[in-house]
Design brief:
The chain is an all-alpha fold. It has one domain. Helix 1 packs across helix 5, helix 2 packs parallel to helix 7 and helix 3 packs antiparallel against helix 5. The chain is elongated, with a radius of gyration of 21 Å. 7% of the residues are buried.
Length: 160
């Protein structure tokens, strides 16, 4: 697949992505509260240095920041999906059927280059608009991609 197809497919996958993110956030919350908050004054890290545990309040603050971060990210991609669906709903029925067959139902279907370029251009416009609206989250559009699982794991490791 090329870059155009990947971006269009990403827009069709947003609802699935949102559900996966919500599931991971629930899992992160469960993991956080299942951990032990008791530490030993004799604890050492891998390098042999004394390792202190963050105070409970700071750990909870990290969890809250993580949850807020993920909520904002979900809001951002839901906004992108809403704009995308509005665009799709204004297209001709035969165009919608063709594009859905390829990207939603994963059927090997010919899509005219003009149609694919039209949708790709709209996706790029939505990305630009999203960056302007979610200015404080602009870096997240690039940082948290389909590879959000590794980003999530990094955040989980810092919480636990």
């Amino acid at each position: 697949m090329n870059e155009q197809s990947d971006l269009i497919e990403d827009y069709f996958e947003i609802p699935n992505k949102v559900e996966k993110i919500k599931e991971h956030v629930r899992h992160a919350d469960e993991m956080f509260w299942e951990r032990s908050f008791i530490s030993s004054p004799m604890a050492i890290d891998e390098a042999g240095n004394r390792s202190g545990v963050k105070p409970f309040q700071l750990l909870v603050d990290d969890l809250v920041v993580f949850d807020e971060f993920m909520e904002k990210y979900i809001s951002m991609i839901q906004y992108q999906h809403k704009c995308f669906i509005q665009f799709i709903n204004n297209m001709a029925n035969d165009e919608v059927r063709t594009i859905k067959r390829k990207y939603l139902f994963k059927v090997n279907t010919y899509v005219p280059d003009e149609l694919e370029m039209k949708i790709y251009s709209k996706c790029m416009d939505i990305n630009k608009e999203t960056k302007e609206i979610f200015k404080d989250m602009a870096d997240m559009i690039n940082d948290v991609t389909d590879n959000y699982r590794s980003t999530l794991n990094e955040l989980l490791e810092s919480l636990v």
